[in-house]
Amino acid sequence: MNKIDQAAVALFKAKAAPVSIFLTEVKGLTEAMDYAVEVCEKKEPFRPLLASSAAPDVPAAPGVPVKIMAAPELSEPDFLKLTQKGGAKGFSVIRDGLRRHLAGIDVGFTEADLALADTATSVLACQREDTRLATMICEIHVMALAKSKIAPDSARAENFLNELMKSGVMYTAFISGCSRTSDIERVLTLGVHGPLELHVALMEE
Amino acid sequence: MQTAANMKTYHSELQEALADQFLRDTLDRFAVAYRANRAAIFADVDEKGLIAEIAEAKEAAIGRMDELYEQFKAEASKRGVIVHRARTAAEANELVRRIARENKVKTIVKAKSMTAEEILINHALEAEGCEVAETDLGEWIIQLRHEGPSHMVLPAIHLSRDQVADLFSQVTDERQTNDISKLVKVARRELRAKFAEADMGISGANFAIADTGTIGICSNEGNGRLVATLPRAHVAVCGLDKLVPSLGEALRIIRVLPRNATGQVITSYVSWITGAGECTVNPDQKKIMHVIFLDNGRTELAKDRLCGEALRCVRCGACANVCPVYRLVGGHKMGHIYIGAIGLILTYFYHGHDKARNLVQNCINCEACKNVCAAGIKLPAIIHEIRARLNEEEGAPIASSLLARVLSNRKLFHTLLRFGKWAQQPVTVGTPFVRHLPEIFAAGQGFRALPAIAAVPFRDEWAALKTSVASGRIKIGLFAGCAQDFVYPEQLRAAVKVFAAKNIAADFPMEQTCCGLPVRMMGERRAAEAAAAQNVQAFAREGFDYVVTLCASCAAHMKHNYEEILAGRPELKAEVRRFAGRIIDFSSFMRNVAELKDEDLNNSGEKVCYHASCHVCRGLGVVEEPRALMRAAGQYLPTDEEDVCCGFGGTYSVKFPEISSRLLDKKLSRLEDSGASTLLTECPGCVMQLRGGEEKRGRRLKVEHMSEFLARRLK
Ligand code: SF4
Fold first, then answer.
1. Considering its fold, how many domains does chain A have in total?
2. In this complex, how many residue pairs, one in chain A and one in chain B, have their CB atoms less than 8 Å apart?
3. Where in the sequence is the domain holding A143, given as residue range(s)?
4. Cβ of A188 under 8 Å from any chain B Cβ?
5. Which residues in chain A are contacts of B138 at CB distance < 8 A?
6. Pocket test for ligand 1, best of B34, B319, B344 (most atoms within 8 A of CB)
7. Are strands B269-274 and A170-175 parallel, antiparallel or unpaired?
8. What ipTM was reported for this prediction?
9. What pTM was estimated for this model as a whole?
């Protein structure tokens, strides 16, 4: 899947809005990281859900809570880039040990392996526990998604998904929005046990 | 959880539910919103096509459940998962307890699973000394209240935000307001601690994919992901019916399941877990993962020719969402564990016949469930079959057996109906309504006036009428049904007038009898068969182009159920098919076949509103024709929920008058508000219910059958 299916991209965009996905368009992964850092900068520091949690890796100025970004799947050079970008803003950027942060983190940054346009679904193959946790315990999940990876629907991505699952032990996640519930009086409320927001950065390349 | 020991207790429980104003309002709003959302969310897909595909795929999977289980087990085992099969609920619970013991489990977090509810797993684990926390918000709420779910997808739909605020105030020892977003945050905080501490996670599975040993879990809150990721051990409990051969089937089901369940194109998360993945708190860095397949009657059910298709169910909850009875009384009265139409059925197969005895009576046969079922299950037919089995197992109630005996003999039945005319005289005081039915016949029936039996049944008038339709370009057989033959012959007389105007040759085979639907609904199998055979034979000899009936319930029953009912009479098979294939309702016949055109009718601008009888709009799928005819002959004023049941349901209205009367009231209020002077419908049962109700309410609407209206408006 190398060529961009423009119709699929358009469909993905159209389907993203009704499920409250924040969509942005960027050039490549570096710009997607810039976007994630920007999102992290603008947000309030996360609200700890547990009394005790691991201390952030970066010492904070007294009285100022340190924001945490996690990006477990980035390659070494990319992770370094993100660490620098985040570090410049005073964020702690981590890639493992997520279990020590169950009280919460600010931003989880991942890159989707595939997307299904008709349901605005991003597919994430997560072998590592840290990858899974990053997408679950963050307040905002930012996903980079190459436009070339958008398939029109699940039927046309079935082979790819099958290969993924046949490849061995795998946790494959379809993510189509943030965590939500309607369990009290059927009132839609975002952010129950998972992220409060899902951002997708559509990458041209 | 419905547990009433007998019908009397069940009735009083229903009364309690009916008195719960919050429940009524909330389910009303839900029903209306659901209907609109569902229509919108299916607009861009081929709903019927997808449902047919799912039905076929699930049916095939059910046929090879054992094989798929073995394949799943082999594939999952390769990937480090331990797969079990539990014959009963007790066995499943013992397995989970053993896993907990072996892994020194103290605390458990649980994601939503109806299968876990089915086996009451929490009780079993708590008895073992484990602390179990439900993590789905709705499930957590009802766990804290020590209740069962009242809906399969929205387990706490029966509770208000105030009740939840009170509950959370107790849990947190801090006063909580009824602000829903804040209440959700309370759950987020309180439960995160449980996730962090838990030794074991228990989930269900929406799919078990055999060729990769993958389980698929749909969730919106994201708790399922944490349950499967954080604790050292993960146990997934699912029914054998969740097995599908490959991912393709699961992906197809996902195109319907969330749409039908919550009006979403997909849930926020679908997790596909293939094998025991990384888990950094275990010494070998691997998750301890078990999948337990529950049988608990499924293997038996799979072999059941008539009811086996219940195993296709994907637990979308839609059959409750559209059920008019559920809407009135809520899930605690509409299922033991599983809820809605499928709940009535699965209670019988999974939880024991005693628990199902009262529940299966509480279906009004409006077919709303069948119409939306994600898996195309013929839910009402299975409910009728269960009634028949219960009758055979435990003996039928006296009234039911009596009716069955009478109906099996056409002459006796018709003689009794004629006799009824004389017997009722003291109570009709010369009006077309029964005025003072002795209490024994009329318990709870005060909400509507019951019609009197006509002075002359239609069959006795036929000789005089038939000359007007002796010949014509199309030859039809007229099927009357008891209600029109003996109570409302004027509806048939009117039809004959319309036939004559369009040059239709009609005949009325005298040997015809009751269509048999009432006895079928009571579970009287043999009487239903006798009536069906009698009718098929009565119409067999003549070369009719069509069999026209003005009773939609008869039509739908004869068209869709006769073949099954007469399965034991192979000599009739070809004849039954022919008969069923010729059946048509009055409006479709007049509009499409007899070509009753706008210019044949006199449009006086009479304001009419419409009740779409269940068996017209759903049973026969007729929607356009009656509306076109009303527009042609009057000013048709559409109303909301035209196709919601009026509460008649034949014998249902006698068995559950408390529910029937509420449905009728709601219906008439909506129709009266339309500003129409005439209410039209196409089933004599609906006429009986609606006219009887209007009589009590002061006759704001004149209730007529479509045939009477058209006869009046002929040029
Ligand atoms: S029976 Fe059909 S409508 Fe009811 S829950 Fe099952 S799949 Fe859904």
1. 1
2. 182
3. 6-203
4. no
5. 181, 183-184
6. B319
7. antiparallel
8. 0.95
9. 0.91
